[in-house]
Prior knowledge:
By secondary structure, the chain is α+β, with helices and mostly antiparallel strands.
Amino acid sequence: MNGFKLEITNDNEFLGLLEGDEVLVSTVEQPRSNGKDLAVFEAAGECFISPFTRFGNQIMLLGERIQVVREHQVKIIGKVIDYSFEAKEKAAAFADVTAELIHAL
């Protein structure tokens, strides 16, 4: 498969992704502009993930806040095809251990 793992560096609660989570990105599969597929975009040297739709030569990013950009301002790197919610699992495990410790007191 042609692709890569991308580690989330900023929480994105809208997408349910937390810092430390990883997504698997396919550079072969192209995301559909249906507002459901998650695309990895690059703009100004930064990567970000967002569902999107198109209107002519404009792309509407459908994240926490809707943003409209011209097609030439962003590059679609690939499609998110899988998630790994390690940060959420670690937080849940930490909460369980903390609850057990509090109960033991």
